[in-house]
Amino acid sequence: MKQVSVYAVSRSILEECGGDVVSATDEMERRVRAERDLFYALMDPLVRKACYDVLREVVRDERRAIWTAPNYTKGGNGDRLVSASLTLLDFRLPHNLLPLREAGKDDLVAGAEWYETQASNMQHKARWLRAVAAKVGNKVVGEKFTAEELAKLQEAVA
Q1: What is the pLDDT of residue 83?
Q2: Helix residue spans in 17-104 (DSSP H)
Q3: Which of 39, 50, 77, 145 has the greatest number of beta carbons closer than 10 A?
Q4: Burial profile 92-127: b = 16 or more Cβ within 10 angstroms, e = fewer
């Protein structure tokens, strides 16, 4: 199989279609289906990413169930069910997916730092969007701001 640069092919098709992303998508799909090398060059990394994403979804769902599980029953008749269910010891760390029961101090610190980074990033985006909303008035963002102005506002709310 020959080496194919999906990026180069994409750029070429986009140029051929005059920058029209919808037309370029149609043309690229046609070529991907017709050219085996291009198909595999495009799909191989997507298959890996899809597998990773599905596994992460399973872990997130498991983590959510563990985090919100009451771990008790009011009537006392669900002891067997609760004892067989996942507990906080099964909570998986975000950066290495270790269950908490197997985590050492360094794993815990790294997991906490990962969550802090995510929270900080989300808070920054929230402050920025609130700042944009406060200034946009009755217009849409593209009518009120340039990309440079948005970037300055993004820095200002850091």
Answers
A1: 47
A2: 21-34, 36-68, 79-84
A3: 145
A4: bbbeeebbbeebeeeeeebbeeeeeeeeeeeeeeee
Q: Are 24 and 13 in contact (CB under 8 A)?
A: yes
Structure tokens at 1: 């199989």
Residue 113: closest CA among 99, 135, 91, 96: 96
CB 41 within 8 A of CB 4: yes
> Which pair of tokens denotes residue 35?
């050219």
By CB atoms closer than 10 A (0-12, 13-18, 19+), residue 91 is: buried
20/7 Cα distance (integer angstroms): 16
Model confidence pLDDT, tens digit, residues 57-92: 998 888 888 887 655 555 555 544 444 568 889 999
Contact 70, 38 (CB under 8 A): no
Q: Is 92 in a helix, a strand, or coil?
A: strand
Dist CA 71 CA 85 (whole Å)? 8
Cα–Cα–Cα angle for 103, 104, 106, nearest 5°? 115
